[in-house]
Amino acid sequence: MSEGKLVIFSAPSGAGKTTIVTHLLSLGLNFGFSISATTRKPRGSEQHGKEYYFLTTEEFKDKINRNEFLEWEEVYPGCFYGTLKSEVERISKNGQNILFDIDVVGGSNIKKFYGEKALAVFVQAPSIAELKNRLLSRSTDHPEVIDARIAKAELEMSYVHFFDIVIINDKLEDALCEAEEKVVRFLGATS
Ligand code: ADP
Ligand code: 5GP
Asked: What's the gap in Å between 58 CA and the centre of ligand 2?
């Protein structure tokens, strides 16, 4: 289904995976970003077809019934996210590697499916308290949404052993360097 390589970034919300993924996309590593579908509302300047395909729950469920997802999860109660098969095809047709920013369950499923063709990276914040600080200072979610995300973080941490590597995102500069180094090495290796 995909000729290039796949790199998956997963983490509890607030650990910093979107920050790291955005950095990697700026490096000219021939990555296409897998734009997920979601039923959550756009945040800030997010645009349909850029960060996400924003769908209604009905549209999302239609796509589930038509078997259009490679994987999907109800990541938070009533809030669906999924990777469309058409995204993987679109990026592969462009001859690009694929970069995913998805939750720990979706990430471990894609790793299982693609095996050695995929590098699965688990991003960890130094502590749950720091996760909460980051979500609060990001100022994009209501307090009850932040609480739901923090409540899920401990369970999400238990998925770490399904991943190839762990990056502790304490000092951002160091985490960006480590991510860059590991990803460049993986892309350069013959498989
Ligand atoms: P995620 O995509 O995992 O939910 P984000 O990349 O959106 O996380 O990061 C959450 C917030 O924390 C953002 O406001 C981001 O700028 C900030 N952040 C990311 N990494 C660090 C870090 N190492 N130290 C402090 N703040 C950070
Ligand atoms: P956010 O609402 O902060 O953008 O994302 C919430 C969570 O959903 C994050 O862990 C994010 O990585 C995850 N997510 C985004 N897209 C997908 C997807 O396609 N599939 C799955 N399983 N999770 C996703």
From this structure: 19
